[in-house]
Amino acid sequence: MTRRCVIFLLISGWCHVHTDYIIRRFHAIDQKETWAKAQSYCRDKFNDLATIMDQTNNADAQQVAANGKFWIGLYHTSWKWSQDDKDAQLDNSFSSWASKELGDGKCVSVSALGLWSVRDCGAQSFFTCYSGEHHILEKQLMTWLDARRFCRSRYSDLSSIKTQQQNQEVSRLLQNVTGGASETESDEGSGGGVSVPMAWIGLYRHFWKWSDQSSAPYSQWATEQPDESKDCVVMDVKSSSADWFSRSCSEKHDFLCHSDIRASVLRSVKLRLSSGSADVNDPTLQDAILRQMKEKLEERGINEEVKLRWRDNVSHREEEERAPPGDSSHPEAVRLRLQVGGAPVFHLDRRGWWGLVAVGGAW
């Protein structure tokens, strides 16, 4: 204990506190492009299409954009086949949607007529599995996730349909089937609507995510948004609002990019010799001091973005400063206080210290 006190009292020199943190800047591009072309531009010139993680980001982007509709990086991930988790749109161009308006579901079923419908993944339905050679209809009512688990445990996976022939093979399994989930669809032969059985297949889509692959915990959707049939997002910037609207990715709009800048802040903490003869240029002593400072930072929960080091030519002499006359209880008291967010985190005098500065510190 005595040794520790001696170190606090006898140190002298400058300790550098080096902090790094990320500043996100937004850039409004006055150039009307599709979402995909805007993404390519932003990735080439900056980091990516704008990723907005909180209300502060949204306000910053609004200020930069000023007015108008701007693509941001939020999008609906592509349709994927459960069997190989590949992008269905890139894998092949075949589809058999019952309607151009796909609705707000995330999972897909096929009917006995060979038409695909987007449904709530929690709905219960028959389902078709693929064994590696054949498609098999399972006449059990399950949610999409439960059906996938079943198919993966017994066969290969839920059925993938990538050609017209495969679509016919699967839809034939549902013909003359009774029970299970059904849907009213147009029957061209009768001119009316008929109730046809349906079964889950392996097609599904994820939720909203950002172009840089960040998740999307924050959103600023306008009223009655998003329209789940539209896969890309614009920020509609006005003087008093910056709400989000889902739009077709093929539309052309101006766009917002973001760049992340790593900012560095250097702070110097001066530790003065008040008595004794310890050599502050001793590397062992310097290491001991920095370890103690690091411990104080960790007590404050600051342990990743702060680097401590000694400046060159640590030790130098200067005239002793005397305490004001009559200050016998605290001789030679010289104090230094550092703050983060208004709260003191470092307090130094010639008798000891309690903490250290971190990101954003002010002298």
Automatic annotation (TrEMBL):
<feature type="signal peptide">
    <location>
        <begin position="1"/>
        <end position="19"/>
    </location>
</feature>
<keyword id="KW-1015">Disulfide bond</keyword>
<dbReference type="InterPro" id="IPR016186">
    <property type="entry name" value="C-type_lectin-like/link_sf"/>
</dbReference>
<dbReference type="InterPro" id="IPR018378">
    <property type="entry name" value="C-type_lectin_CS"/>
</dbReference>
<dbReference type="Pfam" id="PF00059">
    <property type="entry name" value="Lectin_C"/>
</dbReference>
<protein>
    <recommendedName>
        <fullName>C-type lectin domain-containing protein</fullName>
    </recommendedName>
</protein>
<dbReference type="InterPro" id="IPR016187">
    <property type="entry name" value="CTDL_fold"/>
</dbReference>
<keyword id="KW-0732">Signal</keyword>
<feature type="domain" description="C-type lectin">
    <location>
        <begin position="130"/>
        <end position="258"/>
    </location>
</feature>
<feature type="domain" description="C-type lectin">
    <location>
        <begin position="21"/>
        <end position="130"/>
    </location>
</feature>
<dbReference type="InterPro" id="IPR001304">
    <property type="entry name" value="C-type_lectin-like"/>
</dbReference>
